[in-house]
Amino acid sequence: MTRPNTRSAWWRLGRLITGVLAAVGFVGACDLQNIAELEPGVSTEADVREKFGQPEAVWEGEEGAQIYEYNRQPEGVVNYMVTIGADGVLVKVSQVLTEENFAKVQPGMPLEQVRRLLGKPRKVQTFPLNGETHQDWRFQAKGQTEPMIFSVAFDKDLRVIKSGTMPDPDLQKR
Question: Is residue 1 one of the residues assigned to a domain?
Fold first, then answer.
């Protein structure tokens, strides 16, 4: 019976982990590069779709604008809302997982309004016994190095009961 080469196995595992981490970072770097290549008032809807692909959702905006949702959950720490004017030209690109937007989430707000504000959550949990649904978004707080979770609890009518931030429990398990 031959003994496996543990050093080689650890080396391969290290390379695999490095590759996965690089791929996750590459996605973020690609987003930043794509955003830098788009110019509000000049770039078109076709330019946005070429850079970002098919949006997760399309929302109606003011004055005939459309808002494209580009979700980077569950592993990312951003969600983008890209506003395209009625004329088909880029108006703005916004990263919506911000503490300023979290402050807009208030008790009584309907789930659809929260989704439109923050984009698709990374995690949804339903608790049948108390009728609550919890939704979580991973984000990067200003000045922090570790991702955090913004969590919203909805009642049985899918209206906000409460919201708050906490450390990412997935990171606590490591």
Answer: no
